[in-house]
Design goal:
5 helices, 28% helix, alpha/beta, globular, two-stranded antiparallel ribbon, eight-stranded mixed sheet
């Protein structure tokens, strides 16, 4: 069965977006290499309807500029089929993207049962939070930035029951960011 992985930039205090916007200002070749390797292990990118247009457009533009240092990542993101799970979006003209409108848990379980490699989710905070709340995430790849935001959007605020996670990898990067990889038990 396919696994669902979440890869998120996160601050030390658990913020992934909103007013603090913890963008990867310390994004470097090491982290880029990790992200591309992670993409090579999946064959589907899952997105919420609010994140999809911006993410797909941004990386599509990056994939057209061979001089961009993120070209390889943009090319890979552009090549991988994307699935938007939404109750409001019924179709899309975004390239290499399909839309599913069923209940979140039902759609994720259907996707997990399909043959293929694992799936990865890149934000947004509300979409990832809903996946976590429904206990649908199998692996968390948290890129912890050495920043305390103080406020903003988190991904664990809607959890109603404790999550039991198993630490499977810790990898510090020279930029100060650390990968904390956990699997659901």
């Amino acid at each position: 069965m396919r696994q669902l992985k979440v890869q998120m930039q996160i601050t030390l205090d658990g913020i992934v977006g909103g007013t603090a916007e913890p963008r990867p200002s310390n994004w470097d070749e090491e982290i880029r290499s990790f992200a591309i390797t992670n993409l090579n292990e999946v064959d589907t990118i899952l997105l919420g309807s609010q994140t999809a247009p911006e993410l797909i457009t941004h990386w599509g533009n990056v994939a057209q500029d061979t001089s961009n240092e993120d070209y390889a990542m943009g090319k890979r993101i552009t090549e991988i089929p994307k699935v938007v799970i939404s109750t409001s979006m019924t179709s899309t003209s975004l390239p290499n993207t399909s839309v599913r409108n069923g209940p979140l848990a039902t759609e994720i379980e259907r996707l997990k049962q399909m043959p293929g490699k694992d799936m990865i989710v890149y934000g947004g905070a509300r979409f990832v939070s809903s996946l976590i709340k429904a206990n649908l995430v199998d692996e968390y790849d948290l890129l912890v930035n050495p920043v305390v935001a103080g406020n903003g959007l988190g991904i664990f605020q809607d959890v109603e029951h404790p999550l039991s996670l198993r630490l499977i990898e810790v990898r510090p990067f020279s930029s100060g960011t650390a990968l904390m990889r956990y699997r659901a038990r």
